[in-house]
Amino acid sequence: MTTIKVIAQEAGVSKATVSLALNDKPGVAPHIRQRILEIAKRLNYQPNASARGLALQKTQTLGVIVPDISGPFYAELVRGVGEESRAHDYYLTLCTTIGRPSRERMYFQLLGEQRVDGIIVVSPRNDEALICQIHAEGFPLVVVDRDIQASDKIVEVIVDNFHGALAGVEHLIGLGHRRIGFINGPPEIQATQDRLRGYQLALREHRITPEDRWICVGDFRKEGGYRCMQELLSIKPPLEAIFTANDLMAIGAIKAIREAGKRVPDDIAIVGFDDIPLAAHFDPSLTTVRQPVARMGAVACRLLLQEINGEEILECKAILQTELIVRASSGTQEGGD
Amino acid sequence: MTTIKVIAQEAGVSKATVSLALNDKPGVAPHIRQRILEIAKRLNYQPNASARGLALQKTQTLGVIVPDISGPFYAELVRGVGEESRAHDYYLTLCTTIGRPSRERMYFQLLGEQRVDGIIVVSPRNDEALICQIHAEGFPLVVVDRDIQASDKIVEVIVDNFHGALAGVEHLIGLGHRRIGFINGPPEIQATQDRLRGYQLALREHRITPEDRWICVGDFRKEGGYRCMQELLSIKPPLEAIFTANDLMAIGAIKAIREAGKRVPDDIAIVGFDDIPLAAHFDPSLTTVRQPVARMGAVACRLLLQEINGEEILECKAILQTELIVRASSGTQEGGD
DNA sequence: GTGAAAGCGCTAACAC
DNA sequence: GTGTTAGCGCTTTCAC
């Protein structure tokens, strides 16, 4: 392993000069610099990251903390972060927390051991206090897909879930449906609360009073959508349409509908949320509220780098907009009879 | 940031003693050790990773190099690696290479800068020479989903693609189909070659001579499956069944079939490869050759750690088996008329 | 313009 | 048992 010391000997100069030359800093005679660079290249020199990190107190590495990485949403998010971090010559350390007893340790380890220069937290569960504490200790930190109520100084990248849901449900209403069910995610997750509000407002504005039993609590997975739909199918008179808080649950719901011998969208119209890559290829293709997931990751990364570099961040909250993507699963005409 | 030095002062001992105590090494009086541990806990001490890495020449970090991370296959693979590495207290640095002009630099940077203790390479494209070179330089390295022909000393985790494809196609033959098309991946990828051989042998063993035009080169994405299927649909007399080299292309193919006004599996039976999470929820549910993707990642990780720890690795090639998962898309009876 | 020296935080060999 | 010392590879004053 070539070190700066070897190069110094080879070039007949000191380590300091080599360091200056290699880092493009002034104070080295052109021909010396030239020679040093040549030797470095010839010897395939690469600076030792630990040594550099120790001296500079920087690692050129970011951490991203997500519950899981299988599943289209988080995978795409991490992709966005990864692309952006690479573009800025940062490495990415991936931490998945699901199934881990104390994810708290992971935040602290990454930052406390100074393994990373900052972290992006995509953790929808309730540990506001912890996040605030980390932030209070001065660690660069960006939160994605979640609004930390306790502090307005923590940088956040969030999606306008409220208006997204509003648009999704209004689309269904516009198609003539009035009895519209809602398969939501777990209530402790913030995005689900916002989507619920959007759902409720949409109905209310059209003088529809949703019954409690129209709303079912899912898990953001296919299985939850399936189970919820089975429950919702038992409602009499039957619901005409379902809004689901993500596409995966929409897919589960469609399966349940099919198994009950009904058709989508003819008997029941469906609108999902996310626009996962397969949404367009599903049968029927999914009408859904698209989130700019990769962009969220990229924005989070860029904001984190600003924070790391000590740049002033003008707005702590980056709010990205959703977009309604109309496809087949919602139907084009009135669905009910 | 608490350091070992602070603790030493606080406890009235030397840094060396603190280091010994904190690392559970012998040579420290019990009551001293006790006090050191208490202070460390109180001050929330965490060792600086760079300093430790520099001294120990180890980073407790692995690198995983994949083309992309969106897409169910690589996401699941990385998940497997991540779970396993966490279980062994290793961090994971994620490198995606797609769209990157010189992914070569990334291998070298990660290892050359000694940012990681070893890497898992999941890179189906042709850079055998590079991989061999890295291995020759003594860097711990495990290759996944690919057999490096040039060396039999490189540790590899591969799937029995040949028998997987064989089983998939034989399943179709068993259902009475004889005119079976094949939508494959790019030819320069090894897995596709093996699957092609499996496809060919299955037909040959049943005295079916596949025509060249039955085979179409896709891209492992939905789009490629869609495009290929459009081509295959023009064949007269029509094909009765299609084997696709992955589920994503199967999904694209099904879309093309539907748009042509035909039904799956009634008009054309389909068998995919991978068993992605959504395969069971697709309509029709996908018959497919399952790969133990997460396990591949976990095995690769474990082998890499063995290599890092200097343990003898008895078999360089871990070959995992596939499993045929029969669902609806292949039909249960003779499909054609 | 260049080199010597100190220091980043930790570990490990060797005295005491 | 414990402390002293050197060193991991790099950066960065500060003399020269």
Descriptive account of the structure:
The structure is a homodimer of 337-residue chains. Chain A has 12 helices and 12 strands. A 6-stranded parallel β-sheet of chain A has the order 2-1-3-4-5-11, sandwiched between helices. A 6-stranded mixed β-sheet of chain A has the order 7-6-8-9-10-12, with helices on both faces. Chain A starts with a helix and ends in a 12-residue tail after the last strand. By secondary structure, chain A is of the alpha/beta class. The longest helix of chain A is centred in the first third of the chain and has 16 residues, at 72-87. Chain A has helices at 4-11, 15-22, 30-42, 49-56, 72-87, 103-112, 128-136, 161-174, 190-205, 222-233, 247-259, 293-308, and strands spanning 61-66, 91-96, 118-121, 141-144, 155-159, 180-184, 215-217, 241-244, 269-274, 287-290, 317-320, 323-325. Chains A and B meet through helix 4, helix 5, strand 2, helix 6 and helix 11 of A and helix 4, helix 5, strand 2, helix 6 and helix 11 of B. Chain B binds a DNA duplex (16 and 16 nucleotides) through helix 2 and helix 4.
Task: Explain briefly what this protein structure is.
The structure is a homodimer of 337-residue chains. By secondary structure, chain A is of the alpha/beta class.
Number of helical regions of chain A: 12
User: Which class of secondary structure composition applies to the elements of chain A?
Assistant: alpha/beta
Helix fraction of chain A by DSSP (H/I, runs of at least 4): 40-55%
Overall average pLDDT of chain A: 93
The low-confidence runs of chain A, each spanning 5 or more residues with pLDDT under 50, are: none
Please give the order of strands in the largest beta sheet of chain A.
Answer: 2-1-3-4-5-11
